[in-house]
Amino acid sequence: MPGQRQRAGGAGEELEPIVADAVAQAGFELEELVVQQAGRKQIVKVVVDGDDGIGLDEVAVVSRAVSEALDSRDDVLAAAYTLEVTSPGLDRPLTKPRHWRRARLRKVSVTQAGGDAAAKFLARVGDAGDDDVELLVEGQLRRVAYTDIEHAVIEVEFKEPPAAEIAQLTHEEEGSR
């Protein structure tokens, strides 16, 4: 599956290893780096994530680490800049096994590779491995290889998922919940 990280041209290509290293030292992973010109300043947008997600306090830690790294490399980013550090939004495509692990028991919209309309379906996420994910589709469990998934995103739900679906995905007896 294609990766999420976007490489920015120009200064962004030189900045990426610097930013990725600072983010990694803070204990997270660089998802995306975008460098844009905005008048006389540049906007450096850094999207970070981790296996357990990232909270506001952790965003602040990463922001300080990236800021220090950028400030120490004036040769790469000589102009004034605005740094934006954020976590991926709910609409981020599920492209890596860890994205699927974090989406466990969530409802997702999946488009299978191949592109015909019948290849799009809603499912609930079960166990995610390194190469495939267990999905509950219309009451049936099935394993789907990541390579067979063209696009997948989390669907927002406003009510609790049905207990029967959760029991099926957690391999519990419904009465033992």
Automatic annotation (TrEMBL):
Swiss-Prot/TrEMBL GO biological process terms: ribosomal small subunit assembly; translation
Gene Ontology cellular component annotations, sorted alphabetically: cytosol
Record keywords, A-Z: Cytoplasm, Ribosome biogenesis
InterPro entries named among the record's database cross-references: Ribosome_maturation_RimP (IPR003728), RimP_C (IPR028998), RimP_N (IPR028989), RimP_N_sf (IPR035956)
Gene symbol of the encoding locus: rimP
Organism: Actinophytocola algeriensis
Descriptive protein name: Ribosome maturation factor RimP
Source species, domain of life: Bacteria
CDD domains xref list: YlxS_C (cd01734)
Domain Ribosome maturation factor RimP N-terminal: from-to ranges: 18-91
Task performed by this protein: Required for maturation of 30S ribosomal subunits.
Lineage: Bacteria, Bacillati, Actinomycetota, Actinomycetes, Pseudonocardiales
Listed HAMAP family: RimP
Family to which the UniProt record says this protein belongs: Belongs to the RimP family.
Protein localization: Cytoplasm
